[in-house]
Design brief:
This protein has helices at about 1-70, 125-130, 135-150, 195-200, 220-225, 230-240, 245-255; strands spanning about 70, 75, 90-95, 95-100, 105-110, 115, 205, 210-215, 265, 270-280, 285-295, 305-310. By secondary structure, it is α+β, with helices and mostly antiparallel strands. Strands 4-5-10-11-12 form a five-stranded antiparallel sheet, with helices on one face. Strands 1-2-3 form a three-stranded antiparallel sheet, with no helix packed on it.
Length: about 300
């Protein structure tokens, strides 16, 4: 009887010990898991700080490049290779194409002369680049609605919309749109699929005006501006790739026949650039976007119009 009681006591003590050991092991595992998460979080924060520093370094290098490079109608060329820490290409075509500085670093530079300034919009051109040739009704709606949005009267155009059409927000009724996102509010544009709108909005910029550079625009913009069919616009762009002088001759002839004001277009850069830098490190990505004017104004060699880091 005493042996049985002693055995029960030992079994009870063993179970207590096992529960304590289990609790300690659980605590150890929890601490290890927490420590692992903390290390991962710390590493992530450290990588984020590194990518931000790298993007800023590259931004400074690109500012130097843009200040010192020579240019032609559609590109920039450095007098010599800029090696610093990151190797920037000697020649950069400023149409927004990507250039890889390394497997983790990507840059793009876009001159605003290939884009439309929201301060100076042509309803006809906007409607054309927002639609295809088989979307005649939508094209007319966008053209007339943008016209109504900008004019000061309340007379509705045939396919347009005035104040009564916009219930949740007032119509602009001023000659200048104030933000690229504002275009999304306008009748016709507001119904475009999100993917279409995301593609369209990158054709606009908010900043100082620049003359449309026909040596840099793509076939869509060229077709809309010169009022020519897309196939001919593509043919002209292909000519441009191999013979810029011949392209300029053909396009200038077209513009003259249509009696376009020479101040509306040109074949030169604005020296106002949209800059994008993407740096990745592990699972971390930092994106720097800026619009910088290098024309030089009031004793400033450049002016940063907008800037963001995400």
């Amino acid at each position: 009887m005493m042996y049985l009681a002693a055995t029960k006591k030992r079994a009870f003590a063993l179970s207590i010990v096992l529960w304590i050991v289990a609790a300690l092991m659980l605590g150890a595992v929890s601490i290890a898991h927490f420590a692992k998460d903390s290390v991962k979080l710390t590493q992530g924060v450290n990588d984020k700080l590194k990518t931000r520093i790298i993007t800023q370094d590259i931004f400074e290098i690109l500012k130097f490049y843009l200040l010192t490079a020579s240019n032609d109608s559609n590109s920039l060329r450095s007098a010599k290779q800029i090696n610093f820490i990151y190797k920037v290409p000697r020649r950069i075509i400023v149409d927004g194409r990507d250039y890889n500085l390394s497997k983790n670093i990507k840059i793009s530079i876009q001159d605003t002369s290939m884009l439309l300034n929201v301060f100076h919009l042509s309803p006809t051109i906007v409607a054309k680049i927002a639609t295809t040739n088989n979307q005649t009704q939508l094209r007319n709606i966008i053209k007339d609605s943008l016209k109504d949005w900008l004019d000061k009267d309340n007379f509705v155009s045939l396919n347009g919309a005035e104040a009564s059409r916009y219930v949740n927000y007032p119509i602009r009724n001023e000659p200048t749109v104030q933000n690229v996102a504002e275009l999304r509010l306008i009748k016709g544009i507001h119904t475009l699929p999100l993917s279409h709108w995301n593609h369209l909005k990158h054709r606009f910029y908010y900043g100082r005006a620049s003359t449309l550079n026909l040596a840099l625009v793509d076939e869509t913009m060229l077709s809309a501006f010169l009022d020519i069919d897309m196939d001919y616009a593509k043919e002209l762009v292909n000519i441009r790739k191999n013979n810029m002088n011949e392209y300029i001759r053909l396009v200038s002839s077209l513009a003259e026949k249509k009696k376009y004001d020479r101040s509306e277009y040109g074949f030169h850069l604005s020296k106002q650039y949209k800059i994008k830098i993407i740096v990745e490190l592990g699972d971390v990505r930092t994106i720097l976007k800026a619009l910088v004017d290098f024309k030089g104004r009031k004793n400033k060699v450049y002016t940063i119009i907008n800037y963001s880091v995400l």
